[in-house]
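Dear Dr. H.,

I hope your travels went smoothly. While you were away I took the liberty of generating a structure for the chain from your last submission, since the lab meeting agenda had it listed for discussion. I wanted you to have the full record in hand beforehand rather than looking at slides cold. The sequence, exactly as received, is reproduced here:
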Amino acid sequence: MWFSETASDRQVLRYVLGLMDLEVPQLLVTSAGFGVTPDESVLIVTPKNDRGSAVCLGILGDGGADKINSAINREWDTMRDELSRGEYVGNPVDSKNAAVAQGQVHPDFEGSDVLDFINGAVVTHITGIGLAGD
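The corresponding predicted structure, in token form, is as follows:
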């Protein structure tokens, strides 16, 4: 899950999709407004509340875990590359990430405020946030 206090839901969504080499028009959209990758391997949910915006990714099918891990690795590789050149100023949407399963923060992310971005959030319909300009 990626979450940000400062970026809009649209900006966080586009950032995460960019890590997966996707754009909003490529997504399949459920009746509830969730996004699904074209290969139907990853579910994308966009909760938003007074604290900020988030993008949650869930494994739906074969290759889903690999796709999510590739996005995480791409973000880390970009950060390391920019750090090595002395050019790192943060990611473009000032987002953080954490792993959450069944309402519990993964121990690797203990102390994260990620649940503040889920609790009390409303899911934004994915087509309503991703198609207009920033």
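Two observations you may find useful: The first strand starts at residue 2 and ends at 4. The chain has three helices and ten strands.

With kind regards,
E. W.
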